Amino acid sequence: MSDMTQYEVLLDIMARLRGPDGCPWDREQTHESLQPYLLEEVYETLEAIDRNDYPELCKELGDVLLQIVFHAQVASEAGHFCMEDVCRSLVDKLVHRHPHVFGDAQVDGSGQVLANWERLKQQEKKAAAQRASILEGLPAGMPALLRAQRVQSRAARVGFDWPSLDGPLDKVEEEFDELRAEWQQGHTERAEEELGDLLFALVNVARFLQADPENALRRAVDKFERRFRTLETVFHEAGRDIGQATLEEMDAAWDDIKSHE
Question: Is the same domain home to 81 and 16?
Answer without folding.
Answer: yes
